[in-house]
Amino acid sequence: TGKPTIYKGLVGVYADVSAISKVMPETNSLTYRGYAVQDLAENCSFEEVAYLLWEGELPNAAQLAAFKAETAAEREISPALHRVIREFPKDGHPMDAIRTAVSFMGMEDPETADVSDAAQRRKAKRLFAKIPTAIAAAYRASKGLEPLRPDPSHSFAENVFHLIQGKVPQPEVLKAFDVSMILYAEHTFNASTYTARLVTSSGAEMHGAITAGIASLKGPLHGGANEAVMHMLKEVGGPEQAEEWLSTRFDHKALVMGFGHRVYKSGDSRVPTMTKYAEKMAEVVGDRRWMETSRVLAAKMLREKNIHPNLDFPAGPAYYLMGFEIPLFTPLFVAARITGWASHVLEQAADNRLIRPLSWYTGLEQRPVPPMSAR
Ligand code: CMC
Description:
It contains 16 helices and 3 strands. The protein is an all-alpha fold.
């Protein structure tokens, strides 16, 4: 029989149905549970969006208060996890740290092996609450600093700044951060989300699926791009050097990080909103260099290659201007995407069939095993 069509990278393949989010590349738009993502970003907190993704509807005031109280009460990580984190190599990558911490949390979780929908939902909330605490503890341990205790009166965004930076910034900064969390929360069957669904399809539990999702997100073609963007902007140096730097990049046919997308070919729906808030950060900090450099790069990419920026392009400088160190950018993406991953884990488990595709064999023909003396 002849070779079947191979969809390398599963390009254009519908692997399942999903009612969580919808990408419409023809109109550069994205909705979560039917709401446009830019509308959610402007009008909701990240906690509201987390609730929406998991429950299917936006919370009313009482539901939101209960959700915030329930998750804020779960922010502490165990003394055992703090000890494990202190043993992490000081020069380890924060993504490896949070991947390891989530795996450890799975072993400690009181309901670890319970894959019922109710238990999986409780585990998702615990992860949502504890991930920032673990990211911050590992970051501070790598600097020889003691971890800070979460304060249950803080919002999700306030908590992240408090735990990592030791201070809560002004409202404009908190809003820009919340916007980034909302925009990063969910994006259909991207590599890390599909990884989480694939793990779930074997009947494995929430923490395993999320650990695998984090491993997938680290790659520079996926979440790792937000860090790569900031390294790139620093390498360029400023708007004056941007045209020439990019021309050299074109000469080498090198990838330009933060550009291109598998699904959006004429613009990523999340970019205008994130760019607006990154610009606000530049104003707050009084440093326009990175956004001006970005503008020159984006204009030339579009003019000469017809390639648009993706969300990581404005998110990278936004996080930098918010005062986060570059290796924390992808862990912050984890703190957001746990919401989307967990929704997909629940959806996959609710209507599961083991994910098991076929491979078309291109190796050697079948042959006998030669004796040792004849090899
Ligand atoms: N820089 C230079 N050329 C590019 C880029 C880029 N960033 N992205 C795509 N192209 C070119 C690519 O070389 C190809 O050219 P040709 O047809 O001559 O071979 C053409 O555009 C089509 O691209 P593709 O490789 O077929 O696209 P893909 O769907 O396989 O890959 C991608 C999508 C995101 C992996 C890719 O665009 C890329 O590597 N971008 C840089 C990394 C990045 O920013 N990733 C973040 C993705 S979005 C947010 C997230 O998931 O975290």
